[in-house]
Amino acid sequence: MNNDSVAKLTKAAESLRQQKETFDQRKRHDSRWFILKLIMGYSAILMLLAILVISSVVVFNYKDYTENIVNWATPALFVDILGLIFTVWKVVLSPNASTKLEPVTK
User: Fold this and answer.
1) Around 22, how many Cα atoms within 13 Å sit in the side-chain half-sphere?
2) Which comes out higher in pLDDT, residue 95 or 8?
3) What is the CA radius of gyration of the chain?
4) Is 71 within 8 Å of 27 (Cβ atoms)?
5) Domain count, the chain
6) CA distance 34 to 30
7) Is 65 a domain residue?
8) What are the pLDDT digits (tens) for 4-38?
9) pTM of the predicted structure, to 2 decimals
10) Is residue 71 part of a domain?
11) DSSP category for residue 104
């Protein structure tokens, strides 16, 4: 083997190693992003339930609370729930939120 062949073989091996490293890094990133999406989804469900329960208790028992509290709970029931759903849908559950794993070969 001449030096030119050894250089080409070494360059090809290094290119393959770098492509493997890049793919492995993207795979780890995708795995972590999936876990984050699951956590955000479950957190959003808990937050929705908490907002719904607390606001409903205040709205349905309005005589037990001051007018200010009732005035805060009523919009929270609608605005916060809609805002939370929209945010989770656009940021976390959107199909464009994460990259698709693809080969990194040239």
Assistant:
1) 12
2) 8
3) 26
4) no
5) 1
6) 6
7) yes
8) 888 899 999 998 998 899 889 989 998 998 898 88
9) 0.64
10) yes
11) -
